[in-house]
Q: What sequence folds into this?
């Protein structure tokens, strides 16, 4: 197998594992999964709302899940760790599922989108976007798209990897509605964003540190100049004495 096909195969396995866990752990409040493959083990970190349902009594459920992943996807030595979600409003998949649930209860799409965005930002997110696409009106109406965002949301480039995404589908009476949620987690540092305060502080610190260096260099230069002057003063009397001695000798000879 070439290197290109190996990368494609690994990505496909990770996607299939994520879909499988999403179905199996839906009642436990599945949010996302992180898969890290090492030469010794395959580490699978599952983020859920209710870790007790994943682990089970005496670890029975998680052992069965580990064996199922090992046999179904041919994963060597999988190790599953369960992580509890701290804040569900910062998890895009959980937010999308909650919106889908409300849409199936015939709630006003625009109102629930605005309320959800405000709730996400109040929980510390740097930016959020919600897109609803499908039969949003009564029977016989055309499909529409509602797109609303708040805060900073990058749309292109490598910085989009720092944005968490989630998707769910609602099935109300009049047709399916796709729900897409994108959230920028709190504390995310973007390389294309510069903080003015940090730059000003760095400039002040650099000027403060440079002044003592200039003073120390000036003092060292002054010391060197004094040493050179003292050397010249000590050397001059010897040279003058030697000259006068020669002149006196010549006079006495005459």
A:
């Amino acid at each position: 197998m070439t290197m290109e096909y190996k990368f494609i195969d690994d990505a496909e396995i990770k996607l299939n594992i994520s879909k499988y866990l999403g179905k199996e752990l839906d009642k436990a409040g599945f949010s996302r999964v992180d898969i890290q493959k090492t030469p010794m083990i395959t580490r699978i970190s599952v983020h859920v709302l209710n870790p007790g349902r994943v682990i089970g009594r005496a670890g029975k459920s998680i052992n069965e899940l580990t064996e199922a992943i090992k046999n179904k996807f041919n994963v060597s030595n999988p190790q599953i760790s369960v992580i509890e979600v701290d804040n569900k409003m910062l998890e895009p998949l959980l937010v999308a599922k909650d919106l889908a649930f409300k849409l199936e209860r015939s709630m006003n799409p625009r109102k629930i989108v605005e309320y959800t965005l405000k709730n996400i930002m109040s929980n510390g997110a740097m930016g959020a976007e919600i897109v609803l696409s499908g039969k949003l009106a009564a029977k016989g109406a055309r499909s529409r798209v509602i797109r609303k965002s708040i805060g900073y949301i990058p749309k292109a480039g490598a910085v989009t990897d720092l944005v968490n995404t989630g998707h769910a589908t609602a099935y109300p009476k009049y047709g399916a509605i796709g729900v897409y949620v994108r959230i920028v987690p709190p504390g995310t540092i973007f390389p294309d964003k510069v903080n003015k305060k940090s730059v000003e502080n760095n400039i002040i610190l650099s000027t403060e540190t440079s002044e003592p260096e200039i003073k120390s260099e000036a003092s060292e230069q002054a010391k060197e100049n004094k040493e050179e002057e003292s050397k010249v003063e000590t050397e001059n009397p010897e040279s003058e004495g030697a000259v006068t001695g020669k002149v006196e000798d010549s006079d006495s000879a005459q």
